Amino acid sequence: MIGAIIGDIVGSRFELNNHKSKSFDLFTNDCHITDDSILTIAVAKAIMESEKILKYSLASHFKNEDYCKILKNNTIKYLKEFGNKYPNSGYGGMFRSWLHKSKTTAYYSFGNGAAMRIGPIGYFARTIDDVYMLSDCVTGVTHNHEEGLKGAQAIAVAIFLCRCGLHKSEVKNKIEKKYYDLNFTIDEIRDSYTFSPTCQHTVPQAIVAFFESTSFEDAIRIAISLGGDSDTIAAMTGSIAQSYYGVPKEMEEKALTYLDKELRDIYKQWVLFIENKNCLY
User: Fold this and answer.
1) pLDDT by residue (tens digit) across 144-168?
2) Where do the domains of the chain lie, and which CATH numbers do they carry?
3) Of 146, 150, 151, 118, which Cα lies nearest the Cα of 134?
4) Cβ neighbours of residue 72 closer than 8 Å, sequence gap 6 or more
5) Distances (CA, A) of 235 to 23, 61, 198
6) How confident is the model over 211-228, as pLDDT tens digits?
7) For 201-248, where are the alpha helices, taking DSSP H only?
8) Are residues 136 and 65 in contact, defined by beta-carbon separation less than 8 angstroms?
């Protein structure tokens, strides 16, 4: 989760003022958390609360539907709770409208909000089949368009495969087979790339930014240098890069200073919660 939070914070000051270069200060007084961090933390909270009711590791094949229902309900609960508690955080128009409605019907979105908040699933899942099911459970409460579900799954799968120790080439091959054509480079598209809030035009780019990187920090810098929806692209790239490289301690500590006590406490709970979680691949 910290990878997404760092990407969000670093990218926050560049979303409306793109910086198409890898040369910039990572953290400044103009940086802040946005909906990317807040909703990622909300999803982590939903997973932890769901586990108190029914542990997914103990659920049989026939109980997965029950677990999904619990997770969906908690996802709705905490997306709404945190979304309304932090109202001025850059939410998209459809999500903002959903926050204030008593009905919890999904709104057929393919916005990249589906993919920027999915990171916790990639770290919680035990198997690739878990990733598919749990990603759709969390995403479908709002983004039930096939492209929204696809974008979230692609990020969660990339996180999971990196977490399981696969080489970048293996991860790329699997993403290309199931999700997107990644036959481009960031240098090739940077000059013409413009803002898009959709999964189709941000998720592949965020994944390629990770593949081209040599370190966690380099991944964030490449993602920012692309331009466009900088905080969300960097949050997606950062969530994958964390699972592959880890995150420098000093960057983690600096990023956490941008969170209030409640959000920091949930983050700390999450770190303990996923400690020693094994992946089976």
Assistant:
1) 999 999 999 999 999 999 999 999 9
2) 2-16+31-274 (1.10.4080.10)
3) 118
4) 137, 138, 140, 141
5) 18, 33, 14
6) 999 999 999 999 999 999
7) 203-211, 216-226, 230-245
8) no
